[in-house]
Specification:
It is built from five helices and no strands. It is mainly α and 155 residues long. The protein is flat and about 45 Å long. The mean pLDDT is 88.
Length: 155
């Protein structure tokens, strides 16, 4: 539907889509931290994030324009998420087994590979491609154990 798409706009969108993941994860861990009552530490994370974002925008926007603003957003969102993750991990003694982290990395790697192949080598109607990729990634999720299929009655 858009006729005036530029390569710069595509690059900005790609960076913002990655930062969206960090922002989404921040909602999860932020809710956990808020429920635990650690608002002082939580607010300090945000204060540092605001300062970092402001300084990066002052530096990057005059040099790179919209892409600089997107990069500043990505760095800030990643930093805030990582800080929230470690705060929640220390507060709730969360443990992530190495096998789980390896499975996550494998899933992300295969997802990017499948999307690259879909974009560059498949020439199907886009809705068919989305369906095929969705089914493949759902099957991969089941194989890696992220979803468990149970045919028994839970009661």
């Amino acid at each position: 539907i858009y006729t005036d798409v530029t390569q710069e706009g595509i690059a900005v969108f790609k960076v913002l889509m990655i930062s969206f993941w960090f922002m989404s994860m921040s909602y999860i861990f932020g809710s956990l931290i808020t429920a635990s009552g650690q608002l002082r530490k939580f607010n300090m994370i945000f204060l540092v994030g605001i300062i970092v974002n402001w300084v990066m925008n002052l530096y990057l926007i005059p040099r790179q324009g919209a892409l600089g603003a997107a990069i500043a957003t990505l760095v800030t969102q990643a930093m805030v998420f990582i800080a929230q993750f470690f705060l929640a991990k220390s507060r709730f003694q969360l443990h992530f087994p190495v096998t789980y982290l390896i499975k996550m990395l494998l899933f992300v790697s295969i997802t990017f590979t499948v999307l690259h192949i879909s974009k560059n080598f498949l020439e199907l109607w886009w809705l068919v491609e989305v369906g095929l990729v969705g089914i493949l990634l759902l099957a991969l999720s089941i194989l890696l154990g992220f979803f468990r299929l149970s045919w028994t009655d839970p009661n």
